[in-house]
Amino acid sequence: MLVHTDYLFFHTKQRQEFIRITDEIAGIVEQAGVQEGMVLVSAMHITSSVYVNDWEDGLIHDFKEWLETLAPAGLNYRHHQTGEDNADAHLKRTLMGHQVLIPITNGKLDLGPWEQVFYAEFDGQRKKRVVVKVMGK
Amino acid sequence: MLVHTDYLFFHTKQRQEFIRITDEIAGIVEQAGVQEGMVLVSAMHITSSVYVNDWEDGLIHDFKEWLETLAPAGLNYRHHQTGEDNADAHLKRTLMGHQVLIPITNGKLDLGPWEQVFYAEFDGQRKKRVVVKVMGK
Amino acid sequence: MLVHTDYLFFHTKQRQEFIRITDEIAGIVEQAGVQEGMVLVSAMHITSSVYVNDWEDGLIHDFKEWLETLAPAGLNYRHHQTGEDNADAHLKRTLMGHQVLIPITNGKLDLGPWEQVFYAEFDGQRKKRVVVKVMGK
After folding, report:
1. Range of the structural domain that residue B7 is part of
2. C91 touching chain B per CB within 8 A
3. Does ipTM come in above 0.95?
4. Most buried among A69, A89, B19, C109, by the most CB within 10 A?
5. Count of CB atoms within 10 A of residue C92's CB?
6. Cβ of residue A3 closer than 8 Å to a chain C Cβ
7. Stretch (H or E) spanning B65
8. CATH number assigned to the domain comprising residue A131
């Protein structure tokens, strides 16, 4: 049984950014030498998401607008009484999900034709981390 | 250590359908011969969900109405400039989740009394696939 | 390969409660003796969530208000024709997520600085259960 751990680091220029990380995950799986198993990709910060969806700029724009509708910035959140201003980022990350688990088959990510793995940052401009844990044989 | 891979295929008649797949997953786990471990059930298309909830037609009706409220079809989505018309399906699948991981204990799915596994199709009438990855011993 | 199973039980006083369970999960992982692997924490009832986010009362208040906006109680849900009154709890649990998978590195939960694991109850005042499945070596 093989278990392999790695981390991805992000420091985005914008407060909100969506970054494709499929190739980075595939690279870590190859390095781990796992032929059959699973890889967990999980945001280690609670204002970021890891999710699987389409690599299409229009849809990413739609996601951002939609998240702003369902979890708007700038409201009078109770969390902001601590001095924070990012309650909306906690809510947005909850809608998009905080982690994905990808099957590994024959040494490759077993993804459908349009599945791409994304890191979504909702409170960036500082150092953030994603854990990548590979398990299998 | 045992790892076993299988796939479920769907081709729904309606654009939107909710299909119970608990028995199919249980069958694959039995075939895998895993006594202790986990099974990942994950939609391989980005306009479909796999989720766990109640097998009750009224609630499934409520889910559909609720998803239409939070992620309506027919809006002027940017994604539609590519020729697609399914941006709402990407959003709905995000709300319902794209995968579940079910524990296997004593050779059985370790589910609570009302937990049922569902495949939710939001852009059907074509071939879709779900990956089922069993891992354990 | 080690696989270890445990359960957490809840019987909340309020209909809705958010309970931090990070330490309980860490204790089960220690007991399992797994140094490298993953632990699945999954609600066995379909009106409860397990999620990872901030341990800050203001934010928990914001989550509750936000869930009430997006998935209100007291609507005329079809599910209620069965005699139930908890359709909103099924929807709220869907928004917050039903499970998390936490990496284990060097025998410890591999969590970011602010990550805390929570059980969220949306239809309490009765016995509920969470399964904790540890897998690794």
Report:
1. 2-74+82-136
2. yes
3. yes
4. A89
5. 26
6. yes
7. helix B57-70
8. 2.60.120.460
